[in-house]
Amino acid sequence: MGDLAFVFPGQGSQIVGMGRAVYESSARARQIFDEADRILGYKLSTICFEGPAEKLNETSVAQPAVLATSIAILEAFIESVNEKLGRRVSDGT
Length: 93
What we know:
62% of the residues lie in helices and 0% in strands. By secondary structure, the protein is mostly helical. 23% of the residues are buried.
């Protein structure tokens, strides 16, 4: 396989509803959001999925929201590829 890069968005890309579809479709994505909720001590997932937009746009919420959503999408992608290949992509096998 050739070079591979993942590009992630930054603050300003957040929008109410982000991450909901991947949360609903991927067990690994649910784990990421649940862990973020636990670590932060508040329901980041609820703010991402339902808003309000004013809260999601606060820097102290927007940055972990974009990070958690990006990691959840990446992990869901890896989970999907692993299912198709029948092995762990990150193992390099």
